[in-house]
Recover the amino acids of this structure.
């Protein structure tokens, strides 16, 4: 029995040693293998991640508005009278930005062209955007120009115009400081002049005034061409291309024409840059 068991033990020991050696080799190779890189998914499901946040945000806004409407009374005025027009006659607050733009531009520009350009500009963003960074998440580092332009256009132009129309525009659509009394009999003499008259004393409706107005508008939009020539060899400009850049530069300069016209109108009483028999700018 001893010999038999001894023989069996001797016979099986090489196999056991072979299995142990293989297991040890696998353990060593696994320990020496480089760590695998964990790749995160670049997409997230709309449900429940996005829809849940949107539902919570909508719920919070609804609660705030409900409490606000219960705690504060609506600022209703007296019953409308056909023989008595309020001074000033203001549009609803969400249209006061457009109404205040009538001070700086003709109705066809302030009420039709510029709002249409705002809508068209928002529609063309996906077609002119060549920056893949920042898609699907919020980042300022990779989208400084886009976010800064939106913040300036929305807050410093649209919201500021609404605030001016609501709190600073009084009787006669005159500007009043927040601490001033809204005097309905206040008369502010405005010696409105056009750009050519202000600079050179040339009537804006004359041929020289029209040429100066066209030159001023052309010079304003030529700033985009100057910037393109200056930065044409940059990687961003090459990736954007001339057509996309022309669209972006045209929309951006048109947007910046509003604060420029506000400075001319409020600071220098300049009403028009270009005067023609068909339209004025």
């Amino acid at each position: 029995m001893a010999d038999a068991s001894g023989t069996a033990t001797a016979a099986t020991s090489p196999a056991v040693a072979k299995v142990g050696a293989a297991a040890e080799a696998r353990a060593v190779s696994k320990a020496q293998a480089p760590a695998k890189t964990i790749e995160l998914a670049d997409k997230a499901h709309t449900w429940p991640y996005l829809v849940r946040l949107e539902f919570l945000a909508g719920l919070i806004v609804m609660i705030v508005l409900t409490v606000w409407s219960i705690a504060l009374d609506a600022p209703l005025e007296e019953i409308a009278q056909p023989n008595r027009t309020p001074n000033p006659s203001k549009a609803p607050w969400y249209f006061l930005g457009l109404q205040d733009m009538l001070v700086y531009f003709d109705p066809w520009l302030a009420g039709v062209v510029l709002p249409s350009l705002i809508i068209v500009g928002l529609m063309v963003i996906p077609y002119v955007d060549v920056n893949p960074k920042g898609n699907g998440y919020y980042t300022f580092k990779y989208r400084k120009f886009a976010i800064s332009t939106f913040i300036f256009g929305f807050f410093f132009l649209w919201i500021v115009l609404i605030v001016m129309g609501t709190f600073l525009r009084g009787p006669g659509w005159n500007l009043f400081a927040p601490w001033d009394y809204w005097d309905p009999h206040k008369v502010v003499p405005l010696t409105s002049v056009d750009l050519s008259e202000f600079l050179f004393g040339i009537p804006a409706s004359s041929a020289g005034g029209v040429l100066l107005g066209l030159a001023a508008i052309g010079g304003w939009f030529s700033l985009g061409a100057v910037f393109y020539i200056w930065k044409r060899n940059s990687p961003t400009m090459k990736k954007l291309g001339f057509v996309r850049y022309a669209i972006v530069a045209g929309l951006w300069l048109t947007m910046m024409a509003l604060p420029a016209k506000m400075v001319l109108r409020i600071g220098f009483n300049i009403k028009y840059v270009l005067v023609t028999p068909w339209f004025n700018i």
Remarks:
- The longest helix spans residues 2-32.
- Confidence is low (pLDDT under 50) at residues 1-12.
